[in-house]
Amino acid sequence: MKPIAWLAAVTALSACAVGASIATGFYNPFDRRMTRVCEKILIDRLRSPSTYKRIEIDHYSDPVPLEEFRKIREDEIAKTSNAGYRDFERQMLKINTDLIASGSRGAPIMFKKYIRYDAANAYGTPIRALSECTLLSENGSESEASIFNVRVDGTTKSEYLIKLIKESNQN
Q1: CB of 67 closer than 8 Å to CB of 75
Q2: 20 to 30 Å CA-CA from 130: which of 4, 41, 118, 137?
Q3: How far apart are CA 61 and CA 114, in angstroms?
Q4: Is the dihedral of CA 38, 44, 47, 48 positive or negative?
Q5: What is the pLDDT of residues 88-110, one digit of tens each?
Q6: Which neighbouring-strand residues pair with 112?
């Protein structure tokens, strides 16, 4: 096979694969990082992850006042069980709030995404649901989204796993 024909075949197959993944709602390479992180966390929580199909996503972002930002971060820090990490995070919060207050850094932004999707429940019946995904960004960018700081329906991935472990220990 000639190199140009081989390259054309690979390009055509790649385009078909990307098109199929977008059409099925499973993965869109053009999605922002926060959208990909939100969907990963959401899919990991489903009883039938393979049945997930995105219907639509609504995007919103709002600046967060400094006092509200401080309260949200202090609440998150208080939930941490590691005292050394808590002290470090409090110091970082002080530095960040001082930078924001002095105008050296822009206001934090709360990014929100509402993901409407279909997925099968435990009985295999497709159910339409809506999940809220949030990211409190200190630098005003969705690019810092990770499974550790994005909240889906109010909890990060690690908080959700801890909740599941606590629930299983009660039974």
Answers
A1: no
A2: 137
A3: 12
A4: positive
A5: 999 999 999 999 899 888 889 99
A6: 60, 134
